[in-house]
From TrEMBL:
Name of this protein: N-acylmannosamine kinase/N-acetylmannosamine-6-phosphate 2-epimerase/N-acetylmannosamine kinase
The organism of origin for this protein: Roseicyclus mahoneyensis
PANTHER family: N-ACETYLMANNOSAMINE KINASE, ROK (REPRESSOR, ORF, KINASE) FAMILY
GO MF term set: N-acylmannosamine kinase activity
Alphabetically ordered keywords of this record: Kinase, Transferase
Domain of life per record: Bacteria
Tagged with keyword DNA-binding: no
Any GO BP: N-acetylneuraminate catabolic process
Amino acid sequence: MLDPDYAPDGFAVDLGGTKIAAARIVQGQIVARASCATDAHAPPEAQVAVMAELARQVGYQTGAALGVAVAGRIDDRGHWHAVNTGTLSAIVEVPLTDLITRALGPANCMNDAAAAALAEARLGAGRGLRNFGYLTVSTGVGGGFVLGGRLLESRSGLAGHVGFTTAPGADEPCGSGRRGTVESLAGGRALAEAARRAGQVADARTICDAATQGEAWALHIVTVSARAIATLIADLTATLGLDAVAIGGSIGLADGYIDLVRDALDEAPAVFRVPITPAALGTDAPLFGALLRTTDRQGA
């Protein structure tokens, strides 16, 4: 349970690459949940309909505080763009804020990693820090940053999409269309493709489990991912002056993954090393952050 003096009450929906979740939050605690698998190829109206149904399942009624977090970028007009077309193939400049408002009621819409960063900075691993970073390693790789107490944002909504920056040793394309990115080494699809090249048929979860059990082929794949994330953290620390980084996502929170990232970062000069912690709010961070952003804007 979070400190109710800091965690607002209301509702939140989080649409990720693999799952859509909705929650009712009361006094810092999620008191009702609903979820289903994400249909990566569904048109935007169908995605919104699912989000609306899940919100109603947890008790949402029009007028209540509602935050919405989604994979992809949200520009300053409230339009939704799937930067990684492999994750959400039908999302092209969708007026998400308008669609959500018509389907449910007024809501703030934002990127899911940015929402998680805000929640961790206010309520979790980043409390009390000046410059804080959050990275999610899951189907893809994303991030969010709270600098001097303010969430880093951009008009295009691209700020924080650090999985699409380049990585040493990477050469394959990722879903953004760029070649040689962090995501092309570290994300879930990259892990599955690396397993295929190694003669294995396995998804990211299976690979992480096999690595934990000491299977050499899997440990190599996960270590490559972790080293790419460590290099990214060093680059971000040099650029943004981070005080600490929290890691979330299904791969990022897999057993032993953060230890591999720390081991790789320890090879860098001391000035590039920062504390690395698991996301304190786990997979719920985007839900808390989306609601926080909504209540911030209602109070502005």
